[in-house]
Amino acid sequence: MKPDTHTVQQLFERDVRYIVPLYQRPYVWNEDQQWAPLWDDITALLQHQENATSAELWSHFLGAIVLDQDQTVPGQIPRYTVIDGQQRLTTLQLLIAAAAKAIAAAGAEDDAALLRELVVNNPRKAKDIDRLKVWPTNANRSSFTAVMAVDGPPPGHADDPDNLIDEAFDYFTRQVADYLAGDGEEADGEAVRAERLRITLCDLLKVVSITLDRDDNAQVIFETLNARGTPLLSLDLVKNAVFRLASTQGCDTDALYEQVWRPQLDDEYWRQERRQGRLNRPVGELFLMHWLTMRLERVIPATELFAAFRQGVLTQSADAEALIRELCADAAIMRSFDTVSPASPEGEFFARFEPLDAGTVLPVVLLLFRSPEVTAERRRRALRILESWLARRVLMRLTAKNYNRLVPRLVAKMKADVGYADDALHEALSGAEGAVSRWPGDDEFVEFLRTRDIYGTVSAPRLVMALTAVEASLRSAKTEKAPITGKLSLEHLLPQEWENTWPLAGSETDAAARTARLHRLGNLTIVTHPLNSSMSNSPWAVKRAELNRHSVLPLNAKLAERDKWDEASIDEHGGWLAAQLVRIWPGPEGWDQS
Fold this sequence. Notes:
alpha/beta, six-stranded mixed sheet, two-stranded antiparallel ribbon
């Protein structure tokens, strides 16, 4: 690498093209963090100039840029790919163009013309977009071209609210105009201040320009520079790498980006954070993690996503365009999980996805949806198998800590016979043994649900999910379609504080028997929050009347048929609920080979 210190004048005075690759981030610098501090530094230089001699003049170091010189034919303007420092270069160009506009408006046309020479190339050597010395990434090009015109944005130019180019140009235009106007106390006129500002911008602002040697690996340097802090997502590094490969393979990268990548993966959706397990992560990182696990059949730590992609996928790819299309197609599938119709079998699975905390198994789900060999019928069967395994385990409070090790093995078994992925999944889960991954059988599942305290040990969302699943199973063509618009809450039919309103005439043994059943599944139902509050600790006659009057759920209609609610009722209802859940979520023995 060849580092050199350049003034802004030296960096931009020759005809040159600094091109920001389309796969890098758009312009993100803003007033609070970058523009205002930069202008404060320039103001300090201007104030120092007023009283300093030439030998005492300060300069200000702006940081470094890293460039990779492109091969050009004789007669072409030299062209460089910007590896790092695109935000800095873009800001400098916006500052110079804004200063030229404000200085011209103040009447100092010579200074304005000298500044304009630093943003546009010689029109006799460069035409159209080649006129601009800096060419930003695709997302910023329209706005950048507009503000870099001689007179600034043309009339009717619409500010893009998602683009900070216009805001930066306007900010610097205002600051320069205010400086030129002065506060009325300076002896210097606008012409003197215009010249002083031009000299400051051209000669006192400096950058270190590092140009890579021919043997330097631009991609590795890009990754290293962007490894400080967390300025980029792993998905950004993937984009950079795969499009560099596409460029070397002669692909039309502009078309690939605009038509394939940008509509799918350059979207704020992928930067939103979502909880999986105990941590919140950007959706794009979760997608890449699950995609790599599905692709490579091994656990990929969140800290090694890009390294795994580069070593396990990129270096094996002879067709970058196909890889880009594959990534985008799979991203579209993953994103579609958020909008699956709740009335479909797939929708039922995803509606229960969050309470099941099933994020770890998404590589399995992605494989089912992306593989054309898997029919809709087999995919739905596989989803039910996966849901049954998960649901039985969470209701029995079995550990999920080693799911991430199990999932790659499931993926591998399903890939081995992907057309029969449902059978492969059933066989793999049925053969899992030990608390780490076993699939509980019917007898164990029913016994647990009938006799164990569920409330307070299994999370409320999971219990609501289970009872909602029973409720849905009771509906038929004769049932009114009455949508539940609010969230449902758990209701203890025998209240937790029962002593005053549910008198017990029996012995201490009877009281112990009642207390033992208080938090079992058989003593729980689901109601709306207002109905829950209204029933509170009321006796059964009141609760029964309230359920009859206000609940439209068939599950509660069945309860309201009972004349009394006691310990025997809890046992009986608990056994019935357990039997229903066995039918909804069959165990390993409850599936016919397809």
